[in-house]
Amino acid sequence: MNNETSDQAFFKNFAIITVIFILFSIFITILSIVFASNPSKENHKDELISLIDKRTSPISNENLSSNPKIKSTIQLAAGAPSDASNSGEKIYKMVCGSCHDNGAAGSPITGNQSQWASRISEGIDHLYDSAINGIGVMPAKGGLASLSDEDVKAAVDYIIEKSK
Ligand code: HEC
To answer: By the 8 A CB rule, do 130 and 153 touch?
Structure first.
């Protein structure tokens, strides 16, 4: 092989490789144009943003009161029991027990039959009325005005049950 033929062979190979490179870069360019203009890319971005918003939103946006257990706890904490699940016992412990457990302010003690006998003999309606509107030192509804009359009556029933 003389110098001339080996030069020719070199240029031939060089030309082939160059063409392959050019074709390859055109192919890559076409690919990137296709993907860059793909409309689903935009949607995907919105989707990602909404996902991020969701995961980073403050927890207080959650509607906690839709959970029944939390709901009743919130109501109790707020002193506003309103549904039937708040038994007389619960209300008694929440409001009335602070006085009637230990006779504070001269109140008749729950469970002490002799202290309650004469009051019970006045009739249940009279006791309801005293508890709802207040009597002597005892404030109306034990001081928690947000209690419903039914709540107070349930608590009175609880006291009577324990004291007769
Ligand atoms: C701040 C203390 C206090 C709290 C709280 C309280 N009481 Fe009383 N309660 C009293 C006192 C004192 C009396 C006695 C009043 C009197 O006879 O002069 C009394 C009396 C009563 C009587 C008897 C009324 C009568 O006619 O003889 C009932 C019934 C009663 N309380 C129910 C309740 C209930 C139910 C609650 C809770 C919702 C409650 N009390 C919360 C202090 C309290």
So the answer is: no
